[in-house]
Amino acid sequence: MSGILRATGLHAGYGAGDILKGVDAELATGRIVTIIGPNGSGKSTLIKTLAGLLPARQGEIELEGERLNDLSAPKRVRAGIAYVPQEYNVFRNLTVLENLKIAREFMGAGRSRERVLDDEVAGLFPELAAHHKTQAGNLSGGQRQMLAFACALTVRPKVLMLDEPSAGLSPKYMSDVFDKVQRVNAIGVSILLVEQNAREALRISHTCIVLAGGRVRAVAPAGEVLGMKDLNSLYLGDATLH
Amino acid sequence: MLQTTFNGIITGVIMTLPALAVTLLFGVLKFPNFAVGAMMTVAAYMAFALNAQLGWPLLPATAAAAVAMGVLCIGIDSVTFKPLRERGGITLMVASLGLGFILENIARFAYGNSARSFAIELARPFRFADIRMNHEQMITLGVSTAAMILMWLLLTRSPMGRAMRAVADNPSLALVRGIESPRVIRWTWFIAGMLLAVGGVLIGMDRALEPPMGSNYLISVFAAAILGGLGSPLGAFVGALVIGVVSELSTLAVPPNYRIGVPLCAIAVILVFRPQGLFGQPYIRR
């Protein structure tokens, strides 16, 4: 299976020091890849660098073989990479419908159409239709997460990157989120997932990347990692998988 | 009392446009632009040049000055604020103070300190229910109301208006929703420049054209924007009306020279008890 999104020798960080110290990672077309690792390992930094919110200091980022390094975050979005941040992932002062319209208008589909979501995506988020006029800041955490998902999917991205989508959600919404991730993948979107709930994430993933200290420590089939007795050690810092 | 209230509404209505400009600029660029007063002055003198010196009617003169001020604001941003954008709000605020000083003195250099007025015909005021209204006040009411409706439509019904609100809400999320912030910033300056130009002309009609005409309104305009909630267009409108009416009514109890105390007290009280204002969102540091 060919790689749709590829990072090679990636260095990035804040201030003087690098958090990513030469990351090589690949997302295969049509797959779900989960990145796990201890706090501070660079998971969110990696996803932000891929999204264009942080500049890559060294290394290459490619989408379908095209170099992305010099593209701004909005241009990467239009190239086909959608990103859902962990927090503050909806415009709280705008209504649900306005959030969706903005996504459709600016993420690549041009002017807003009569319906902001096509049938397939709308079918994934039936609860949003009832809240179109609600201010996004007044939604529950789970509903906000669904709205953020829907916004990212308004233009059918090639790659969807999710930063801790289940963080802070109730168990009901948590399983709902992972179910949605699987269904989004089923409609042809490749998914890169950063997640603390490693077991839940690995259950729906094809591949697992273990990140520690800003470097990739291991890449393995998700099922294999899930079967490990000392799985916790992978994201608590003692990465021993080879 | 009724007449004073009406005068207060007019004062408030005059402030709605600059207050909206302040709140838009603060929302998108995250700094208080203290050059708005001088920008109003410069734009009013532009309209004066076309109206009184070249003989244009005031309406097209104002429209031309508004477009020119919008373009000038984009230019000012690119040479003054853009290079400082990464240095934070305080640096930008200080730069705006310096810019205001320069702009006001350019107007002073060009037209001197004496008061001037637009070439408009004097008309007899008319009365309605014991309220005396002059034509300039009616024009002010009409123009400001129309501008506020247009702004509301722009901000809620157009993609660029939604983008401006989105950048004001969460700039980093706006980037990953595909919104090019430099384009949004240019549009924000253009619209703010137009609002300030119309506001400047309305002040010139209400009082007179003189170099400090815009900066005289600065405290009231900021009080209006802060009362309404910086970043909230609806708040700017309501805040301006409240500050205008309360300032005028205060003259029933205190000498008019102390009227400026009302917006100053309002700023102090709001910042202590409700810093986000009436319609603003509590500030969240991300």
Low-confidence stretches of chain B: none
Number of helices of chain B: 11
CATH overall fold name of chain A: Rossmann fold
Biggest interface, CB < 8 A: A-B, 31 and 20 residues
Q: What is the gyration radius of chain A calculated from CA atoms?
A: 17 Å
Number of strands of chain A: 10
Q: What is the element layout, followed by pairings?
A:
The complex is a heterodimer of chains A (242) and B (286).
Chain A: E1 3-12, E2 20-28, E3 32-36, H1 43-51, E4 58-63, E5 66-67, H2 73-79, E6 81-84, H3 96-106, H4 119-124, H5 141-153, E7 159-163, H6 171-186, E8 190-194, H7 198-204, E9 207-212, E10 215-221, H8 222-226, H9 231-236
Parallel strand pairs in A: 3-8, 3-9, 6-7, 7-8
Antiparallel strand pairs in A: 1-2, 1-4, 4-5, 9-10
Helix pairs in contact in A: 3-5, 5-6
Chain B: H1 2-29, H2 36-53, H3 58-81, H4 89-111, E1 126-128, E2 131-133, H5 135-157, H6 159-169, H7 171-176, H8 181-206, H9 218-228, H10 233-250, H11 261-273
Antiparallel strand pairs in B: 1-2
Helix pairs in contact in B: 1-5, 1-6, 1-8, 1-9, 1-10, 2-3, 2-4, 2-8, 3-8, 5-6, 5-8, 6-8, 9-10, 9-11, 10-11
Features:
heterodimer; A: 242 residues; alpha/beta; Rossmann fold; 6-stranded mixed β-sheet; 4-stranded antiparallel β-sheet; 9 helices; 33% helix; 24% strand; B: 286 residues; mainly alpha; ABC transporter involved in vitamin B12 uptake, BtuC; two-stranded antiparallel ribbon; globular
Short description:
Chain A has nine helices and ten strands. By secondary structure, chain A is an alpha/beta fold. Chain A has one domain (3-236): P-loop containing nucleotide triphosphate hydrolases (Rossmann fold).
